[in-house]
């Protein structure tokens, strides 16, 4: 019994042993594999009082969002149920040793044909912030896109004040007609493509367009809190100015890279670009509403729609 007095009891020893193993584990064991399934299918959607059948992921518009942590593995099965060939690009992800998961059709893979599927399997290495995914063939990305949100590793904080809430804000376009017809006509004639009918914020054109008062994105906020807006420009071709009336925002991250924070009243976001901004809401402003708007920036003669998309804060 002498020996027993110097050793801790067996259950405690087991605990101590497992705890020391836990401390020795490399951090990648906390990474997980996240499974998603994207069924590419047609869905009827109405905007600007025009209904059309369009290509979507899982029949959703707006889109499913992907949420992962830095270091996680993503396993996404894409099944094509439509007549178009399709592939999905994981925009901005550094595909280290997984180039075949990048997604551009005819570049890193053949497109997924009707009735076929493809599994995108990759690990997010050294990136955190906001990225996005979109169809990468012809103009299908005008309806097939969504956010890819990468949180820091478990237990790692943001290098800025922790936001009270995080909200994706995605800029896009709405065509009353089939965008595939627009691009194929442009390719045949060599002219600029016919313009879309509205810009959208989170799939909604907003109250400045005809017939769209109800189709306005509204962000309800509490006073005196910090919100992080995850901005994504998913518009096909247009640079957009974005601002929120009577507010400035603090830019903290661009294309999933932290930046030295700076304040601005207006920002320019190019197609494909993403940025995280902090928005501090006013301390006390009962029932106030503020416009959040985006409009295009263009100096050339190309075809574009010089209109304004509005959402409400
Ligand atoms: Cu892309």
Automatic annotation (TrEMBL):
Domain Plastocyanin-like intervals: 41-153, 166-313
Main location: secreted
Stated name of the protein: laccase
PANTHER family, sorted: LACCASE (PTHR11709:SF474), MULTI-COPPER OXIDASE (PTHR11709)
Cofactor field: Cu cation
One term under GO cellular component: apoplast
The EC number(s) this enzyme carries: 1.10.3.2
Any single Pfam family the record assigns to this protein: Cu-oxidase_3
Keywords: Apoplast, Copper, Lignin degradation, Metal-binding, Oxidoreductase, Repeat, Secreted, Signal
Location in the cell: Secreted, Extracellular space, Apoplast
Cited InterPro entries: Cu-oxidase-like_N, Cu-oxidase_2nd, Cu-oxidase_fam, CuRO_1_LCC, CuRO_2_LCC
Protein family (similarity comment): Belongs to the multicopper oxidase family.
Superkingdom of the organism of origin: Eukaryota
Matching CDD domains: CuRO_1_LCC_plant, CuRO_2_LCC_plant
Annotated GO biological process: lignin catabolic process
Signal peptide stretch: 1-31
Molecular function, one GO term: copper ion binding
Catalytic reactions on record: 4 hydroquinone + O2 = 4 benzosemiquinone + 2 H2O
């Amino acid at each position: 019994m002498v020996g027993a007095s110097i050793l801790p009891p067996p259950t405690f020893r087991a605990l101590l042993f497992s705890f020391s193993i836990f401390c020795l584990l490399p951090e990648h064991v906390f990474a997980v594999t996240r499974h998603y399934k994207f069924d590419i299918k047609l869905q009827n959607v109405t905007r600007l009082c025009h209904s059309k059948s369009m290509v979507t992921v899982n029949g959703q518009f707006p889109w499913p969002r992907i949420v992962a942590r830095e270091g996680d593995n993503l396993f996404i099965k894409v099944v094509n149920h439509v007549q178009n060939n399709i592939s999905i690009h994981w925009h901005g992800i550094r595909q280290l040793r997984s180039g075949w998961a990048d997604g551009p059709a005819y570049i890193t893979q053949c497109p997924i044909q009707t009735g076929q599927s493809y599994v995108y399997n990759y690990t997010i290495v050294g990136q955190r912030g906001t990225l996005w995914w979109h169809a990468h063939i012809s103009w299908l990305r005008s309806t097939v896109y969504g956010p890819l949100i990468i949180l820091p590793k478990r237990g790692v904080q943001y290098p800025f004040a922790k936001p009270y809430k995080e909200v994706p804000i995605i800029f896009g376009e709405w065509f009353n007609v089939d965008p595939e017809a627009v691009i194929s006509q442009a390719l045949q004639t060599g002219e600029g493509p016919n313009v879309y009918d509205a810009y959208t914020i989170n799939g909604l054109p907003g109250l400045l367009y005809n017939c769209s008062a109800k189709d306005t994105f509204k962000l309800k906020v509490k006073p005196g809190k910090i919100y992080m807006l995850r901005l994504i420009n998913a518009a096909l071709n247009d640079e957009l100015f974005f601002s929120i009336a009577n507010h400035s925002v603090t830019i903290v991250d661009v294309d999933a890279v932290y930046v030295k924070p700076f304040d601005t009243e207006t920002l320019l976001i190019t197609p494909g670009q993403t940025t995280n901004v902090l928005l501090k809401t006013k301390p006390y402003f009962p029932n106030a509403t503020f416009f959040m708007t985006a409009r295009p920036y263009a100096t050339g003669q190309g075809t574009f729609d010089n209109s304004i998309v509005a959402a409400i804060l």
